[in-house]
TrEMBL record:
Organism of provenance: Methylobacterium isbiliense
Function: Plays an important role in the de novo pathway of purine nucleotide biosynthesis. Catalyzes the first committed step in the biosynthesis of AMP from IMP.
Family: Belongs to the adenylosuccinate synthetase family.
Record gene name: purA
Primary location recorded for the protein, binned into one broad class: cytoplasm
Record protein name field: Adenylosuccinate synthetase
Amino acid sequence: MANVVVVGAQWGDEGKGKIVDWLAEQADVVVRFQGGHNAGHTLVIDGTTYKLSLLPSGVVRGGTLSVIGNGVVVDPWHLVDEIARLKTQGVSITPESLRIADNATLILPLHRELDHFRENANAALKIGTTKRGIGPAYEDKVGRRAIRVVDLADADLLGAKIERLLAHHNALRRGLGIEEVDAAALKSELLAIAPQILPFADTVWALLDEARRAGQRILFEGAQGALLDVDHGTYPYVTSSNIVAAQAATGSGLGPSAIGYVLGIVKAYTTRVGEGPFPTELTDAIGEKIGERGREFGVVTGRKRRCGWFDAALVRQTVRTSGIDGIALTKLDILDGFETIKICTGYRLDGQVIDHLPASQADQARVEPVYETIDGWFETTAGARSWADLPAQAIKYVRRIEELIGTTVALLSTSPERDDTILVHNPFED
Ligand code: IMP
C-alpha cells in the first residue's frame, strides 16, 4: 500500500479536483504541501459544487484529516473566509478535522499589495500572477523575515518579527512610492485573527510521521502544475514554490521514502493562464473551440485560459522531474469531433530537433513544435466507463501519448462525473 502524491503535470488546471476527490475518499489524511490560495479546486459531490483554494480537498468529506503543511503559504483572513463559506454549504471544519503546520509562512496584506503593484506597474515585467501575494510571501520566507503561524501565539516576539519584516518592506515601499505599513496596526490585525487560526496549529511533521507509522493512507494534494515549478518550470513565468512531487516530502516534513506512488494529472490538450512560453498554443479558431468546449476559465481569477495541442515533450519532462509512476488523463472528450489532432513530440531550434524545452528564456520563446498528426474520431467519448466504450482512434491517441511520455494511464476521466472514469490501476494499491 502506497501513499500517493497527486501532481499537475502541465501548467495547472489539469482537472485535479475530481481525481483528488476520488482518492481522498480512500485516504485517512489529505495534505497540501505547497502553494496557497492561488489554487482553485472544484469538487462536485452529490450534485453540490464546492470551490476550494487553500483547504485540502478532504475537508468536504467527513472522516478524513486535512493537513496544511509547512510548504504552504497561508493567508489567515482568506482561510477564515473559506472556512465560513464552506460552513454555509453545510461543511463543518474544526481543529479535529483540520491541522495547520505551526511552521507555515503567513501571507499578509502587504504581500498582496506588492503582488498587485508589481503586476500593474510594468506590462513588460508582468508574470500574470493571481495577485494573491504568493510570490512576495515566499520571498520573505526565504529571506528569513516571514511571520509564521506559531508567531501568532507570542505577542512580544510577534512585535519584534514585524519590526524586522517592515525594515525590509517599508524601505521597498518608500522606493516604490507606496504608503508605509504601520507596525502597531499590523500587529493588532494579526493578534485579532490569531484566535481563529491557533486552534488549528500543530506539529504537523510529527503528526504525519505517526500517521505513516500507523499505516494510514496519506494523500499529498499538489496544486498548480510542474511546469510552474520555481526550479523546473518556465522560469520566470512560474509560481514561487516547488511543485514537483519531491516537494510533498519537504513541504510536509516527511522523508522522501514516505512519498510512494506519484500520480501525474494530464489533460488531453494543453492550457496555461498568465504570461510565458507556450509552444503549442493555438491562437486560431481551433484554440477558441477547445477553450469553449473545455470551459477553460480560471476558478480563482476567472481569466480565460490559453489553449493548445497536447505537448508530449513537456509532459515527458515532468514525468521525469516528478518521477511520475502513472497518469490520470482528463478531458479526452473535449477533443471529440476533430478531423485531425496534433501531438507535439519535440521542438525545432536553430535547425536541430530537441526532445525537451531548454532552460533559456530566449530559447523557450523561440522553439517551434514538431508535430505528429493523427486522425481524430467523431463518436463521443464523454461518459465512457470502459475501453470498449471508446472509439478505436481515441484509444490510439491515448496509447500514443503513453508511448511518447514514457508512462502509462492509471485512470482515464471522461467527464466531470465521478463514475465516468476508466480505472486501470488504483494508485493506493501499488
Ligand atoms: P502566482 O502563483 O499567483 O504567483 O502566479 C504565478 C503563475 O502561476 C501565473 O502564471 C499564474 O497564472 C499561475 N498559477 C498560479 N496558481 C495557478 C493555478 O492554480 N492554476 C493555474 N495556474 C496558476
